[in-house]
Specification:
The structure holds two protein chains of two kinds. By secondary structure, chain A is mainly α. Chain A has one domain: Tetratricopeptide repeat domain (Serine Threonine Protein Phosphatase 5, Tetratricopeptide repeat). Chain A contains seven helices and no strands. In chain A, helix 3 runs antiparallel to helix 4 and helix 4 packs antiparallel against helix 5. The chains are: A mainly alpha, B alpha+beta.
Chain lengths: 163, 803
């Protein structure tokens, strides 16, 4: 998993070379304004189809970029903190809630991961792919909690949404 | 390992020991007689023991003060980014709140300059929870009350996506003993203050070794000759005296003081002693609270931190050292002014200030604030909440001494608006109703909808003064604020209840064991027959709500409250359905937070992060959410609560808020009009307001005529986001004819759009009712009541307010 985060960080850094600014608090942390593919971390499936931008607010993009780098470096608490900052700017951004769910999953906080994924679903509207990602987080978290039946149910929903 | 104090004490003891030994050898040679030898030996032993005792005592007192670093509490750090709603004035106020100064060349940290379109400024270095933020030179521009541009002036005007401004300190958690502190490091003490103090109190400070022999000789001479007992104290002696405050002035006391001063100077440097002096010296009394130190005195007398005092104000404080009771600027202004001018004169004489500065400062009035604030924090009620949350996780001693840095959620702007709304409205209400001034009290809590962060907390109308914190400590019956939980329980049963389900508002007598017969009444003392569910909530009918709750099961409903974050379960009686149980405004905010957040419970937080004095992250309080209610019924409930504001008991809010805001809320009034409540939410804010009297006497206010007006005033100034909850997948919006409760065509203008869980909306279609038909039917049961025409609306809420 860490490997994929790292790979992802490199993609982000490359994307960032397109000349955009970094987070004021940490010069050098750069990320493309177009958003970027989601990390293939726990719960989310790597997808070849390009994903929509997480946000069109550059402050949010910068914070998400920083969160992903931190998460990639194993700094999950810091990643969570950056995502919470982003959520204060865009509290109804379903992608941000999803990313936070992933971070909590990676931290082993499965109950929180499930709650946050549900919250992401509540803001996802008709975005079936995001809903599927969230159901996958829920499925994986349930599996980790020792609930194989619940996990299967959630993963089945994810698969249906992916159709 | 031995404690450093004991190690030092041991070395001193050894030195004393060897000195004593030499003295003893000399004595033995001189006086051979045994009795004399014994007496001298005993005397010397007693003396050395006494010195040792003094040494330990004074050092314990000194070390105890020196190393106690209170926790520093910060407000939220303002996040600035293009697109943020912010005006140049608000931004400059934020800069000033963290002590930025205006400068024509704003390149030094903490300076700014206004430009045509915005502000140029330079930030300081600051260590946040997640790392250090380097100083930056920036430019910000605004248009139409929004940030349009943020650039780094030092990096070729590179765009900066986000800036975190240093957060303002909003208080500290200080050592106990009824002693408050605003601790200062010596480098934080204005040079003028040091100069003034030395000029007036102890000119030889940097050269003497703790005592001033000439001063002592003079004091002794005057005392012995019976003139009067006089001071002649150095700053060191004053500090010693301050540790063991006593009004007694005896020669033995003086001797002890001299010895302790000498001992203190043996162990500590001049700067260390001076720093402690600045933090320790007694400068006044506020009831049972002693005012120690210049930092606190600055707040107490001038309501400003020390670094923002002017020369004449600093001189006043220095003048007071001689006797804070005698030179009390509030009680004895003339005498204090005279004393201040002596200090200024002495400073001019010793060339610490120029003649021009002297003349200018001498002409100024004392400038003390009329009433002393109760502490160093402008937000004592919020600080109390922070302190309480901290006490769950930390030892009281660590909070008061380890120098922790605590980052909180307080938004000073929201707090200011909340304070102003409460104070202004209470005064207006008292005036309009000719009730005696200052009899009404109130509390306000504002939180952020999706994060559960406490943005503002007002504990009473005198928000600046600590005291009874009504926002967290006042437990009051919540009345109709409890109703939404009944309706939510109903709406969860989608096969039985929709927003249109008719409810029986006919007479009801309820008998249950352990409680007297209960006969709920409506506020208007009428019964309304069959009323659609959403109208029952909008008009806050008691009888039909009680009947609904009893049908659903009292226990089932009250259990839900616990899931929603209300820790104490209300008494298991039907009257609890109508809010005959007590909650604090903060608890009510927790309850409504969950409605506002689509059924997700987020425990309310006042603290985000804690960092040690060295900048090491210690603890985060992360955002936690828990789904406690399904999104669909909560969506329906929110629609019904929007109905309360649009056409029910909350429609008076239209005086303050535009209809497009689509705010949701509920009024609450308790028996005898003792408590006036309003709880509600917008897209990004949840706020709860309570108004009542501390003696629990009737206020004559309903929820709508009291608390709701504060809520309206507050939300108007906060400019919140409109409430547009995310539509759950299994909910559909259907246009309904308010007369018949049937579906109408999409283009029917008299129809209302209502949400239904899929499969529960009426299927039968009605023709579109004419506005006149609606008007005729308005107010009558059983059909739905449409929104009154604007004119009626005004009249009906006005009537409500006046009733």
């Amino acid at each position: 998993m860490i490997k994929s985060w790292r790979l992802f960080s490199i993609i982000l850094l490359l994307a960032g070379l397109a000349g955009c600014a970094g987070v004021a608090t940490r010069p050098g942390t750069v990320i493309g304004p177009d958003g970027a593919p989601l990390p293939a971390g726990d719960g989310a499936s790597a997808d070849s189809v390009p994903l929509p931008a997480v946000s069109d607010n550059r402050a949010v993009i910068a914070l998400v970029g920083r969160a992903r780098l931190d998460a990639g470096a194993g700094q999950r608490e810091a990643a969570g903190a950056s995502l919470e900052r982003a959520l204060r700017i865009e509290p109804r951004n379903a992608w941000l809630w999803h990313e936070l769910a992933q971070v909590r999953h990676a931290q082993g906080q499965y109950a929180q991961a499930i709650s946050l994924a549900r919250k992401s679903i509540s803001f996802a509207g008709g975005d079936k792919r995001l809903q599927a990602f969230n159901w996958r987080v829920i499925g994986n978290a349930r599996a980790a909690q020792g609930d194989p039946v619940g996990a299967e149910e959630a993963l089945k929903r994810a698969a249906e949404l992916d159709k | 390992m031995a404690h450093p104090v004991w190690q030092k004490t041991w070395s001193v003891t050894r030195r004393f020991g060897s000195a004593l030994h030499s003295a003893w050898v000399w004595f033995r040679a001189r006086y051979r007689g045994k009795p004399v030898r014994m007496t001298v030996l005993l005397l010397l032993l007693a003396l050395s023991g006494y010195l040792l005792y003094l040494d330990i005592t004074i050092r314990e007192a000194f070390e105890g003060r020196k190393f106690a670093l209170p926790a520093r509490v910060y407000a939220r750090a303002l996040e600035v980014y293009p697109g943020l709603k912010l005006t140049p004035d608000e931004f400059v106020a934020d800069l000033q709140a963290v002590s930025y100064h205006e400068s024509p060349e704003p390149n030094e940290p903490a300076t700014y300059k206004r430009t045509l379109k915005g502000v140029e400024f330079a930030t300081r270095e600051f260590v946040f929870w997640d790392g250090r933020q380097a100083p930056q030179r920036l430019r910000i521009e605004f248009d139409d009350a929004k940030v349009t541009l943020l650039q780094d002036r030092a990096a070729g005007d590179r765009d900066v996506p986000l800036l975190r401004l240093e957060p303002p300190v909003i208080g500290g958690i200080y050592p106990g003993h009824n002693e408050d502190r605003a601790l200062l490091r010596l480098n934080q003490v204005p040079k003028t203050l040091i100069d003034a103090l030395i000029a007036i109190e102890d000119r030889q400070y940097y050269t003497h070794w703790g005592i001033d022999p000439r001063g002592i000789a003079r004091a002794l001479f005057k005392t012995v000759t019976g003139q009067r007992i006089e001071g002649g104290s150095t700053l060191t002696q004053q500090l010693v005296k301050n540790f063991f405050l006593t009004s007694k002035r005896t020669l033995t006391r003086k001797a002890t003081e001299v010895l302790m001063a000498l001992l203190l100077e043996m162990h500590y440097g001049k700067d260390e002693i001076l720093e402690t002096y600045f933090n320790e010296i007694y400068l006044g009394q506020d009831a049972n609270r002693a005012i120690h130190g210049f930092g606190l005195a600055s707040h107490f007398y001038f309501d400003r931190p020390l670094d923002r005092l002017e020369l004449h104000e600093l001189a006043t404080l220095v003048g007071m050292v001689k006797g804070p009771g005698v030179y009390d600027p509030r009680k004895k202004p003339e005498r204090t002014l005279h004393r201040r001018n002596i200090v200024l004169q002495e400073m001019a004489r010793l060339n610490f200030i120029t003649q021009a500065q002297f003349v200018e400062a001498r002409q100024k009035p004392l400038g003390v604030v009329h009433r002393a604030p109760t502490g160093t924090s402008p937000y004592p009620a919020f600080l109390q909440l922070v302190h309480r949350q901290l006490r769950r996780d930390y030892h009281e001693d660590d909070l008061r001494s380890e120098g922790l840095r605590i980052f909180t959620t307080l938004d000073p702007r929201t707090q200011r608006h909340a304070e102003q709304a409460l104070t202004a409205r209470l005064a207006q209400i008292e005036k309009a109703r000719k009730t005696p001034a200052k009899t009404l009290e109130g509390a306000v809590v504002v939180t952020s909808t999706q994060h559960g962060e406490v943005l503002a907390l007002v504990g009473g109308r005198e928000a600046r003064f600590a005291g009874y914190n009504r926002a967290i400590d006042a437990q009051r019956p919540i009345g109709s604020l409890a109703k939404p939980i009944v309706f939510l329980t109903a709406l969860e049963d989608k096969d039985r209840y929709t927003l249109l389900t008719p409810l029986n508002d006919g007479p009801l007598v309820w008998r249950e064991r352990g409680a007297a017969d209960w006969e709920p009444k409506n506020y208007d003392r009428q019964f309304h027959g069959q009323v659609p569910l959403r109208i029952v909530l909008a008009n806050s009918y008691n009888v039909s709500t009680a009947r609904l709750g009893i049908d659903l099961g009292v226990d089932r409903i009250l259990d839900k409250l616990v899931r929603f974050g209300i820790e104490r379960r209300p008494p298991p009686y039907a009257s609890s359905l109508l809010g005959a149980f007590e909650l604090s405004p903060l608890e009510v905010a927790q309850l409504y937070q969950t409605f506002a957040d689509g059924g997700f419970r987020t425990p309310l937080r006042a603290i985000r992060e804690i960092v040690t004095a060295e900048g090491k992250p210690l603890q985060r309080y992360p955002l936690n959410v828990e789904p406690v209610a399904a999104p669909a019924p909560v969506y329906l409930l929110t629609a019904a609560l929007q109905g309360v504001v649009r056409e029910g008991t909350g429609q008076g809010l239209s005086y303050w808020l535009p209809a497009e805001l689509r705010a949701a809320g509920k009024t609450g009034t308790t028996d005898g009009l003792r408590d006036s409540w309003f709880a509600g939410y917008t897209g990004d804010r949840v706020a709860v307001v309570w108004i009542g009297r501390d003696d629990n006497q009737p206020t004559g206010l309903t929820g709508a005529s009291g608390a709701m007006t504060v809520w309206g005033e507050l939300m108007k100034s906060l400019k919140p986001e409109p409430l547009k909850p995310a539509l759950p997948e299994n909910v559909e919006l259907v246009r309904i004819d308010p007369l018949t409760g049937l579906r109408t065509a999409e283009d029917c203008e008299t129809a209302v759009e209502l949400p239904f869980i899929k499969g529960t909306a009426p299927t039968e279609k009605a023709s579109c009712a004419s506005p006149s038909a609606l008007k005729q039917k308005a107010g009558g049961a059983p059909a739905d009541k449409p929104a009154p025409a604007p004119g009626d609306k005004k009249k009906s809420w006005l009537r409500r307010v006046l009733e």
